[in-house]
Amino acid sequence: MKKILFTYLVIFGVCLVNAQKKSPPKKAKDTIKTEVINVITSYTPKISDAFKIKKTPTIKLDKDSKKRALEYTIFSAPVASTFIPKSGVLKGIDLGKKERLYRNYLAGGFGSNTTPFGELFLHYNSKFDFDIGLFAKYISSENPIESTPLQSGFSNFEAGFFFLKEERYFDIKIQLNSEQKKYNWYGLPNYTFTQPTINAIAEEQSYNSFNVTTEFLLHDSYIQSSSISLGIFRDLYDSSEFLIQLKPNFKFPLGRINRFLDDIHVNTKLEFLKGDFVKEYTSNTQIKYTIFTAGINPYYLLDWNDFSIKAGLKTYLSLDTENSSTNFLIYPDVHVSYPLVKDYLNVYVAANGDLHTNTYQDLVADNPYVSPTLFITQTNEKYSFNGGFAGKLSTHTSFDFKASYKNEQDKALFLRNNSKSDGTNTNFNATSLLGYEFGNSYKVLYDDVITLSFFGEIEIDLSKKITVGFNGKVNSYTVSNNSTAWNLPEFEGTFFTRYKNYKWYFGLDAFIVGDRSVINYNGANNNSFTTKKLTSYVDVNLNGGYHFSDKLSAFIKMNNISDNKYQRFSNFNNQGFQILGGVAYKFDF
Fold this sequence. Notes:
Blueprint: H1 2-20, E1 104-111, E2 115-126, E3 130-141, E4 154-166, E5 170-184, H2 195-200, E6 204-218, E7 223-235, E8 240-253, E9 263-277, E10 287-304, E11 307-320, E12 325-341, E13 345-357, H3 360-366, E14 378-394, E15 397-416, E16 442-461, E17 466-479, E18 491-500, E19 504-513, E20 516-521, E21 529-534, E22 537-547, E23 552-559, E24 567-569, E25 572-573, E26 578-587
């Protein structure tokens, strides 16, 4: 029975499938034959065809046809490396050996003309607390000038101390400096001095100075910085000078008014100078001077269309109580620069002026052979114009060329004092004269001077180790009350070269000074004179050294290697060739 039922179901399924199929319709027979037709004709374009395409067609891509970002998967597996790096292949950047810096150093040496030299610097700092330092320097030379019967030696000693502390809202620095300089008025005029007269001359002069300065640097304040200094200067002849200066500098943010404005800077100065000399050169009248100066210098820095502009003004109120003189002076303070060729050539012009307070200490620094009988006043730089070009000829060559025109009222000039002795004790009592009254000292003469100058400078880095450069300045002077600008050079120049590697260093400096006009008196106590020229000179100096280690090195200095017997000031001959050598040691505590 089961076999009959199974057989019946199979037959029924086959019949059901055959019932679902339909017979396909019969196709009509195609009577047209398939042939290839080639149409060949020439295309004759018309003018209207050029205007058929109105716009560039846009091709839209389907999403499926867009490029898909490729994703890379790296399966890391350890592989035995067969690459061996070759040493010494990478070249081109030579950073050199990093030099270790030490906080302290000690140097000492000895040279010709009995010249001992010593220098010391000690420094200690506590991180985030304070910084303290001490330094001292001494050099002297014993009687180096052979062409004078007087003592011609000198000695300089200076010592200082500083303390720096950083607080949350300001930094404070206190610095003390003390200096003693000894010179001799050995430049006697061309008279015949007898031995008793020479023995009566006390040619030594000593200058002593002390200065204390306190500086404040404030953070997040309208007062950007401030300093106050007190200086005392005295000499062997009881001359004294007292100078106090207060210099607060302000910065006001104009951005709070307009966000396009920068800060405006205001520098101010209060200065009080008081001093006296025992007597004048030609009389026993005491010389006193008291000068009070107040100044303010607001200026604004602006960058506009590649122009860099400084626009400011200097204003001074000056009171000379000894001469009952009051002056109110205003000067421009403008500087404009523009890059003609970016990073290579800048052109600049400037117009300014200033009020300079002459001090006994500053005049001694310029000429240590002045007599302690000076008249002290201020120099009014009425105006000064300069302009020029500065930039680079290449990445290794820089230059600066400019011309300047300056008008100064009461400019200080050095003029030799006439001798009160004719060289003998016959007509003059030499024992009653002071050491600077034998025509061997200088006075200060003031005159209105217009100076036209041309300046040029170029510096070339021949390599990372060698640098050479030269600068020169040509001056032309016009004076109002004198026949010439006394002791001012017509030309000044410097040539220098530097070489340094890890072990050796070397330097050469050649100083060139042109002719200067000086006075030549016709006799002792005789006001008549003639003008003569001090000839130009070249002073070539060499210095070098060798580093034995980071701590220990040796140095040598040779000055005036050509042994040129020139005169910087009339009748004061120089030392000639000098050599000094020594060692320096750097260390940490």
